[in-house]
Design brief:
15% strand; Mannose-Binding Protein A, Chain A; alpha+beta; 307 residues; disordered N terminus; 8-stranded mixed beta sheet
Amino acid sequence: MDIQTMISNDDYSTDGKSLHQNTGNNGSMRTVRVGSRSLPLYPLVIVCLGLLNTILMLTAIVIGIYCGKVSEESNPYKITAQGLIIEVKQIQIIQAESIKAQEEAQQALETELTSHQQLKLQLEQIKTGSDGIQKQIETLKTERAALETNSSDILKSCGRCQSGWFLFNTSCYFHSVSQPLKNWQDSRADCISRGADLAMIDTLQEQENLFEYLPKLDQSIQPWWSKPGGIWIGLTDIETEHNWVWVNNVTLQDGGYWIPGEPNNHGFGGPEGEDCVAVKNIKNPKGTWYDAPCQMGNEWLCEMEPN
């Protein structure tokens, strides 16, 4: 039922207000009585509808504002598209700077590695050069020692002995300290090839001089006889046992300068025993001789007259 129909019904009253239908014979305007006043029906309806529309619009606006505030409060971290674009651009800038820094660091590392390799090569070259210089120094030291030895020999012999020989009283001596070991016969042959012969110790003075010059044997650990080595001299009893004869065929006269207990021949006789004499410088300069097998390898001592 529409509004017009409702208004066209019989009169009724509410709370002292009366409404009635007033129509004329000629179809005059319908009115509504409110209290003591009669108001036209249609304009009133239009005003009411306008007021209702306004109220609805205001209500919609208020609800929209409220909903917007609620939406903002419920999502405080809301990100707009423009904000996202800005952040992406910033990330791209940071990434580009990071890549650039990484490339620069890589280039710096390669430069340092190259410099390190060059420095290492230089150090190796310096070390090689240093080793070469050290070898030259050692060679020069050896040559200097040899020259000093030769000079000392020359000064000692006053030019009367050959290089490598030393002078005592009226004889020049050669000690085969740097030569391979030889047996007694080969040692004598070497001396003869040098224009000399194995040394013949005739006096105590000569014995003491040779004791001071020749190297000493350390007996602090083992006894002298347990250590190999000695220096051949020109004395032997190879022809007749216990008859000691020098290489110049002169028989030993004064008993010699034997180590206590020597010569002992080790219980063997004849050519199989200890028939050749060598020296070992131990404590007593008057006791350095011992007999040994002639085939034993030893150093040797040559003797010749000075020039």
